[in-house]
Amino acid sequence: MEFFTEYGEANQYEIQEVVGKGSYGVVAAAVDTHTGEKVAIKKITDVFEHVSEATRILREIKLLRLLRHPDIVEIKHIMLPPCRREFKDIFVVFELMETDLHHVIKTNDDLTPGHFQFFLYQLLRALKYIHSANVFHRDLKPKNILANADCKLKICDFGLARASFGDTPSAVFWTDYVATRWYRAPELCGSFFSKYTPAIDIWSIGCIYAEMLLGKPLFPGKNVVHQLDLITDLLGTPAAESIARIKNDKARRYLSSMRKKTPVPLSQKIPNADPLALKLLERLIAFDPRDRISAEEALADPYFYGLANVEEEPSTHPISKFEFAFERRKLSKDDVRELIYREILEYHPQMLQEYLLGVDQTSFMYPSGIDQFKRQFDHLEGHFGKGMRRLPLLRRYASLPRERVCAPIDEDPDQKEELEKHAMDAVARTCLQSPPRSEEKKESESANSSMVALPNCRSRPCYSARCILRSSSISASKCIEVKSGGCEDALSKQRMNGIGGLSEKVPALYA
After folding, report:
1. Is 43 annotated as a binding residue?
2. How many CB atoms lie within 10 A of CB 178?
3. 258: in domain
4. Of 82, 95, 306, 503, which is most buried, counting CB atoms within 10 Å of its CB?
5. How far apart are CA 44 and CA 51, in angstroms?
6. What does pTM read for this prediction?
């Protein structure tokens, strides 16, 4: 029985619905039947069809194993394939997140300055940890940042990430850089240098933050030249000193011949924003990478006064170059398959021990349950988007928090009754409400709702803890509102603790 428990883990998960499809596979929401925990399972098919794509997958699962941080998405498990030498698909179990930052920005037009500050703090905290490991993400954008209803963010998609080592040939290191243009640092757009720094990720974070404030991308370039034009339209023509340091002759000539542009004040580009926020943003998107601040320096900025806590901003040791020795040699399909199999064994301690002891693991096929699991995936994937599901789909939220479930327009009474039952269950699990306030406190807040003086004599709008954790757009029209019972306080406390106590510090800033 222990053998089948170890290698038959596919039976441990019950797939509920397909929640996304992309070029690298299908993602389904599932439940761990042993713990009741909700997870996301990513099915990646034909992994070894292209060695370059298989290497990207290897790189990502390795980095996510090595980078353990509350602001980075976690791999909880990878299912053991039935045969070491012949497997083609892999199933990776992640923690389940509700949406991504792109969706949050697109559908919430009333996010508060408190939301922006809290979001940026989490991203910089993650980036400090990543960079301390000598890793560059290289593809930071809103779609690669997952989000939950409690405003928790987690960085994901490390497929383009690289670990930097002192003796790594930079030409090899950067030849495959294909990150999304809108969030790409100018030195990458123009191939200014042969060697880059963590400042490329800082630029991306700055662009993402500006997009939060604006509600739209800051530099939506149509091509590389247009991208550089948009950047210089806002930041002005680079200084002669900065241009002189550019190694690429063509890029240096282009910038030297560019007409003189005067910088546009960020307060003009993003009106009504917190002056401290704009001052920090200016340092995040400096044209010259040497002028950009590090993630650690950004966390110490006055903008995060009252929120930042260096004890909750960990660093880590640089990743050993031996972990990525495969980057230095040409790999065959069998090589990558063996390396991925070795990574999978990290989630199967008994099998890993046998592997390290040299026990032959290729003489028979393990009853992994993968085939049965694939059939479940194929069935749901085949009906993805066609409305054929076992239960009415509850993932109809249009904004980040999900305490209400939108009512379907056309459905029979029995289905509606069943949906309302699921809605009540969902609300009981996720509803967050402010604690009851006395009439005296309400009158006091009303009198002081416009501005609150901070210790540094700078005035800010007042936002309650409820406002920080939830956008007011969650109470959308045409939605069923169900109030939860006495467990609200416990659930709220659990959510606050679940993000490392950061959310408790946010309201204190505006107290």
Report:
1. yes
2. 9
3. yes
4. 503
5. 14
6. 0.72
